[in-house]
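Input record (one chain):
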Amino acid sequence: MALAACAGPSPGGGGGRKVVLDTAADDAELGAQASRAVEAQDGVVRDPALSAYLQQLGEKLVRYAPATPFRYQFQIVDQWSPNAFALPGGHIFVSRGLLVLTNTEDELACVLGHEIIHAAERHAASRQAYTEALSAFSLGLPRQIQMAAYARDQERMADTGGQRICSAAGYDPRGLGVFLGSLDAILRLQMGSSRIPTFRDTHPGASERIGSSSLFAATLPPPPPRDPVAWRESYLQRFEGLVLGSDPREGVIQGTRFLHADMGFAIAFPQGWHVVNTPSAVLAISPKHDARFALEDAGRGDDPKAVAEADIAKRLKQVRATIDFQGEQKTRCCKAYVVRGSIESAKGTIAGQLAWVALGGRVFELSSAYVPIAREKYADRARQFVRSFHPLSDEERAQVQIDKLHLVRAQGGETWAALNARTGNVYPVHTTALVNGLDVGAVLSEGELLKIGVRSVYVPEQ
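The corresponding structure, as predicted from the sequence alone:
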C-alpha cells in the first residue's frame, strides 16, 4: 500500500532469474530475496524495543488472518516518507515516517492488517498471473487500464480484509480511515493540493478509501471499552526519541558535500550533481547522466594498495580492462592508491578511475565512471573528488545535526504557534498539527500529549 501506493520493490526486482510465483514456497523464496534488497537499499531501523513491539503487534493480527505456510516478519524500513508494503512470503515493512504519522495503535494495526491481506492472498502472484493471462491484443493503454483496475480491486480487498482482522483482534477498524485522512492531509500539504486520481491509478482515490473504510467499519464489532487518552498516550510513548528526517548515523548530504560523523570524514561531489545516500554507497549522477561518482566502504585496514590489488585481481577475472595508470598517491591527509583506465561492458566501453583511500583504520573506495568521449571533461573532476576526501573538522562536525521526536504536554488554551515558541519545535505549525491528528486552528487542552521535533548537534555513539 502506498499509503499513497503499496510502494515496495517489484516481485521480479533485484536481477537474477525470474521467479514465477506458482506456490507459497515461491513466495517465500522471492520474499527473502527482496527483503535483503530492501535492507541493502534503504536499511532498517535498529531499535530492538520498537522492532520487537512491531513484530508482536503483527503476530497478534496474523492469528486472525487467512492461514499461510510462511512465518510473517515485520520490520521498520529506514524511510522518512510514510510508506508500507508487503513482499511475497509475509515480509512486511512500515517506514519511520509512517510511525510518526500514526496516533493510536488502531491506526498502525489497520495498516499492518492491510499488508497482511496482500501477503496472505498472494496478491503479487495473482497480479503476475493476471498480467500473463491478458489477451495478446490488450496492448498499450487498454492493457494498462485492465491491470490498474485489477490492482484497485486488490487494494479494496486489502482495506476491508485488514479491517476485519483488526476488529477480530480487538482494535478499532475506524483507524484505517483516520490514518488515510492524515496521510491525504500531509500529502496535500507537501504537494499543494490532493493529487487528482485517474482511471489508470492502481489505488482507489483517497476520498473513496476514507469513505468506504468508514462505512465498512460501522458494520464491524466495536473495540472493547477503554480510556482514549491513556490508550493514545501509551502508544505515543513508544516513539520518544525516534529519528525524524534523515538519520545522520548513515551520513548526511549538504548540497553536494557528504559528511559522516561516525566514520569521521567528509568529501565533496561535483557541483550541480544529484547526490543520493544509500546504506551501501553514496552516489552522484551528472546533470547529463553521462558520469557517475560513488563512495563505498571497502572495510577495515590501513593499506589501500593491498586492498586495491586484491580488488583489481578479482575484477580482472570478470571484465576486460585496459589500465592506463596504476600507482600510489598521497592526498592532503591520507594514503591512496589509484587506477585509471577503461572496461568493456555489455553497453560499450566505460572509462573511469578507481581510488582506495585509508583513514581512521578503514579503507574507502572512490569510483568515477563516465563515457569515453567525456574522459577529458571528467578525469580532472575525478582527481578533485579524491583530493576532497578529508577528516571531518570540528566546524563540519558541528554542522551535522539530528532531529528527534519528543513528547510534550500542552498548556491550556495554547495555540500551535505558542507551543512551538515555548518548546523549540523545529517543525512548522501545519505539519505539527497534522502529525498529531489535530486541526491547525485548534486550541490545545491542558496536559494534552503532543509530538514535536527537537534538533541538536549529532553526537556519534561510542
